[in-house]
Amino acid sequence: MQPSFVSEGEDVIAVVAEVAFEKKASSAVALMVGECLSIVDWFVIVSAANRRQVRTIVEEMEKKLRNIGVPISSKEGHDTAEWVLLDCGDVVVHVMTESSREFYALERLWAGVPSRDLKKATRPGL
Question: pTM of this prediction?
């Protein structure tokens, strides 16, 4: 039986947050960019200590998102693993090394949008 498609951004964010902290990401935040961008509602930004950890986090996110029926329409940056982008429709996930996150400063770029620290955004039972 195929899993049902989950279009709720909140479910995607919760799964991404759960995986991030399961795999020891240093931080994760969700930015509500929908008011500024018409093509996506949320950016989720996750930090990892190194490229190997970026790959590990991304692979587990892909697996868990597939398990709940969320298609990933695009994945960019996996080869270098400094900054991997997963396009999950309404949610775009950025998994970055800490140095890349500091350099590109996406939170500063999107400072005017509502944000949420994802320490407690896990779903029970996943």
Answer: 0.87
